[in-house]
Amino acid sequence: MDFSLTPEQQALRDSVTTLARREFAGRAFTRDSFAWDSLKTLADNGFTGLTIPEADGGQGASLLEAVLVMQAVTKVCPHSGDAVQASNFGAIRQIANFGTPRVKQEVLAKLLRGEGLVSAGMSEPEAGSALTDMRTTARYDGDSVVLNGQKCWNSHGPEITHSVVWCRFGPKTRDIGAVVVPVDAPGFSRGRPERYMSGEAHCTLNFDECRVPRDYVLADSGAVKKMLSIFGVERLGNASRALALAETAFERAVEHVKQRKQFGRPLMEFQGLQWKFADMRIKLDSAKMLIYRAVAGAEGETPDPVEAAIAKAHTNEVAFAVANDALQAFGASGYSTDLPMEYFVRRIRGWMIAGGSVEILRNTIAQDVFGERFSQRRPVAEVR
């Protein structure tokens, strides 16, 4: 098995790195809102919709190429990495895979031009990891579909132009569907903007007899099975970003301990730090191999869900550990907001929750280990 990149893949990575350093580096770590300018630059240079077929306006590239673009951009500017995620790995894939011709013309094309931003409206106040507990409803009314309910924890919620809203068309799990909702739809509103510890903005999305065209329905039944099949792509985007930031933190720490002297010699000469950095390297390499394995095994650009779960869970955890150790190597200066070391730790921490928490991913992995599905619900007889 060859884990090296082809000359073409190396050239892609190098060209994206050059673009990112020229266009994105100047505002890296300084933004407090979504990087719309970076999104437009990515679109103008053909880096949106990388794995989406050319017939739908995408680039028709491989999943590995999309991962390489993600890592190259994120290492330079994490906020611009958000734009890569939104335009390649996130809810845009749900629209590309299941959208009607009208949705692809009116919504997908706008997203690919860098003129729109879509999120996935899934979590609710009482339905996080327990996705099937969602209460947001949808019903058909002539040529429209009408939604009622609320979504929370929507990344970039204050700035999105569309949301893929998961909702119930009926009382059963099989009745769960998904609808594309533009923010100018009647009956749609947003709650007040709030912030994660990473600094990213989010807000609630409210639907009060919210009416959108019937053609904007992506699925009105079986969405959990149908749509979750492409969630592995989003999870690999998540893992790739976490790995890229951890690698950046590691590289900065390596240079620091080469230069920083204590007790009359460079920090790198102390065996305690040597071993710590060796362990960090092992963690980063293992995470990269798991991501590449999941990408290499993807059929039709859809990775095996278990391999994607393993890659994301492992990468999330080791990336956080590496970023934390890298901060420690800087001492007090690493804890200061004058350097981005503390930002790396804060940012990576959120990806252990987003896109499937590391605990939920372990459920997926365990089910594959034992070849049996385990319900997390308390038996009905025990519910009071």
UniProtKB/TrEMBL annotation:
Matching entries from InterPro entries are given as: Acyl-CoA_Oxase/DH_mid-dom (IPR006091), Acyl-CoA_Oxase/DH_mid-dom_sf (IPR046373), AcylCo_DH-like_C (IPR036250), AcylCo_DH/oxidase_C (IPR009075), AcylCoA_DH/ox_N (IPR013786), AcylCoA_DH/ox_N_sf (IPR037069), AcylCoA_DH/oxidase_NM_dom_sf (IPR009100)
Q: Does the keyword Oxidoreductase apply?
A: yes
SUPFAM superfamilies tied to this protein = Acyl-CoA dehydrogenase C-terminal domain-like, Acyl-CoA dehydrogenase NM domain-like
Keyword annotations for this protein? Answer: FAD, Flavoprotein, Oxidoreductase
Domain Acyl-CoA dehydrogenase/oxidase C-terminal: start-end pairs: 227-369
Residues annotated as domain Acyl-CoA oxidase/dehydrogenase middle: 120-210
Record bears the keyword DNA repair: no
Tell me the ranges covered by the Acyl-CoA dehydrogenase/oxidase N-terminal domain, including all copies. Answer: 6-115
The Swiss-Prot or TrEMBL record lists the needed cofactor(s) as: FAD
The entry assigns this protein to a family as follows: Belongs to the acyl-CoA dehydrogenase family.
**Which protein is depicted?**
Acyl-CoA/acyl-ACP dehydrogenase
Q: Which organism is it from?
A: Amycolatopsis acididurans
